[in-house]
Specification:
Elements lengths: L1 E5 L3 H12 L3 E6 L7 H4 L3 E3 L9 H17 L7 E2 L1 E8 L22 E7 L4 E3 L2 H14 L3 E4 L2 E6 L6 E6 L2 E4 L2 E4 L18 E11 L7 E8 L5 E2 L2 E4 L5 E8 L16 H12 L7 E12 L6 E4 L6 E5 L5 H18 L15
Parallel strand pairs: 1-2, 1-12, 2-8, 5-14, 12-20
Antiparallel strand pairs: 3-7, 4-7, 5-6, 9-10, 10-11, 13-17, 13-18, 14-15, 14-16, 16-17, 19-20
This protein binds flavin-adenine dinucleotide.
Length: 358
């Protein structure tokens, strides 16, 4: 069975790995480079139980488990580690009073920052470098026989009755396929011209990667910062095992460009985000800036991903809309897709993610 996966982000790469591991014949077509979009520019934060009490619970729990298993199983290092996760607050206009104990605050957190609570422990929270993880999944799929083509998918071919997928069109060439998976992140919206696909949107986020002069410990920080004009913004800070520190937290509503290579950070955002993060971690104020970037996370109308077949066209599948949890949920999504495409049924209940719900 030949499966063509459109998109080489974390969802496409994870599906490629789990399908290839089951012996399927897989081709991935990626427009720019593996992990060139959100999958290479996100935080890479993982949580076991933050989606409990939502339809994502089983998928997220399975995926958290798979992240740990993959880090042991595959011979590659993508910065997987367990972390302490804290909620903190700081103000750029007044002194906040510190609670009695500051024991849980790491040394790189500034004096004016207060601890609001412990959000996760190494038993429940972890991190990866998402770009390295995505590339490692694709590399592992290639070792198992998958093929990666850098090219743009321009269409999906169906039979004369329009009821069954027969292949895709990329760069004017047709590639035959028994099944096609649309996993183009927010660009999956383009596939609605080819298949009856519900809407997918892109929400832009800006992020920075620093190399500070001193080591930062393995803590993930969710902060609330009161700015000089009274606004409260929420930067997230993720030190990585390679000595770099990732920061995100400023989103915006710019339209999605058709070409992923045209996604650029907005002028002025970089300095604003550095100042915000520096209010929590002063060591970032004079740290070397090694990436100033932006990306779009894919979202659906009800905030839950779409994972499953498009019932009107046999052989057509979609996996997108993972929003802020795409890195966390990629392994279980890939595993579930392999089950679904090869066996007709997934081990995780995908009912809430049925594309037909819209
Ligand atoms: C600022 C920010 C921080 C985040 N932090 C986290 C986090 O800490 N933890 C977490 O779990 N999630 C996080 N996320 C969410 C996560 O990054 C996304 O959900 C995930 O990366 C989406 O992966 P994807 O494979 O669906 O899409 P993408 O990564 O967008 O991949 C889609 C791919 O399709 C390709 N493509 C597009 N058009 C075509 C075409 N016509 N033909 C072929 N290929 C095409 C693109 O080039 C791209 O490589 C964050 C997101 C943002 C924006």
């Amino acid at each position: 069975m030949h499966i063509v996966i459109c998109g080489g982000g974390v969802i496409g790469a994870s599906a490629a790995y789990f399908l290839s591991a089951r012996g399927a014949h897989v081709t991935v077509i990626e427009r720019c480079a593996v992990a060139c979009a959100a999958s290479g520019k996100s935080g890479g934060f993982l949580a076991l139980d933050w989606n409990d009490h939502s339809p994502l619970s089983a998928l997220a729990r399975r995926s958290f488990e798979l992240h740990g298993e993959l880090a042991e199983r595959l011979d590659a290092d993508w910065g997987y580690r367990r972390v302490e996760t804290l909620s903190v607050a700081a103000s750029q206009q007044r002194a906040l009073s510190r609670p009695g104990s500051t024991a849980a605050l790491p040394g790189w957190i500034g004096d004016g920052t207060v601890l609001q609570g412990e959000l996760g422990s190494p038993e429940t929270t972890a991190q990866v470098d998402p770009g390295l993880f995505t590339k490692a999944m694709m590399d592992a799929a290639i070792v198992l026989g998958a093929r990666l083509i850098i090219g743009t998918v321009d269409g999906v071919r169906v039979d004369t009755g329009g009821k069954t997928v027969t292949g895709i069109i990329a760069g004017g060439q047709t590639i035959d396929a028994d099944a096609v998976l649309i996993a183009m992140g927010p660009w999956s919206a383009l596939a609605s011209q080819w298949l009856p696909l519900p809407p997918v949107y892109g929400l832009k986020g800006n992020s920075l990667v620093f190399r500070p002069k001193h080591d930062f410990s393995a803590h993930a920080i969710f902060a609330d910062v009161e700015t000089g004009d009274g606004e409260v913004l929420s930067p997230e800070i993720y030190p990585r095992p390679d000595g770099t520190v990732y920061v995100c937290g400023l989103s915006s509503e710019q339209p999605l460009p058709i070409d992923p290579a045209d996604v650029l950070p907005e002028p002025g955002r970089s300095e604003r985000l550095r100042t915000l993060a520096g209010a929590i971690a002063p060591g970032l104020l004079d740290a070397e800036l090694i990436a100033d970037q932006a990306c779009y996370r894919p979202v659906t109308a009800n905030g839950l991903p779409m994972i499953g077949p498009l019932s009107a066209v046999s052989g057509a599948y979609v996996a997108t809309g993972h929003s802020v949890w795409g890195i966390l949920n990629a392994p279980a999504t890939g595993e579930a897709l392999a089950d679904l495409i090869l066996d007709g049924e997934a081990r995780v209940d995908l009912t809430a993610f049925d594309p037909g719900r819209f």
